[in-house]
Specification:
Length: about 120
């Protein structure tokens, strides 16, 4: 809620011990463009919270870094579903250190690159 009307555009929470994120869809951060969450413990549950941020009506995030977390194929699937409806994200950094992502998980992400249906 504190970020809803904040002028903060970049938030770096690398190595902060974060495992999940709770997003109130009524209080989406309007100005947040870059979110760095590398080297935390984010898993599939954390991805569900991030999905709300990516799908929100005021979604303006252009860069999301999730390197070195505990994301597996289930988390990738949650993010991929959210990204199918997202028109703002330009950069997603996810693979390095997320050893639970299989070839199938990477395929889900790569499929998004070829899906231009959400591009305005």
């Amino acid at each position: 809620r504190a970020l809803r009307d904040s002028p903060i555009e970049t938030l770096s929470c690398d190595s902060c011990g974060i495992d999940s994120i709770e997003i109130d869809t009524n209080c989406m951060p309007r100005n947040l463009r870059s979110l760095f969450l590398s080297s935390n413990s984010i898993n599939a549950d954390g991805c569900r919270g991030l999905a709300k941020l990516l799908q929100g009506g005021d979604a303006a995030l252009t860069c999301l870094s999730l390197r070195n977390n505990q994301i597996d194929d289930e988390g990738v699937q949650v993010l991929a579903e959210a990204l199918r409806r997202n028109t703002s994200l330009v950069t997603l950094m996810i693979a390095r250190g997320n050893d639970g992502i299989s070839k199938e998980g990477m395929t889900m992400l790569l499929t998004l690159i070829n899906d231009v249906s959400s591009i305005n």
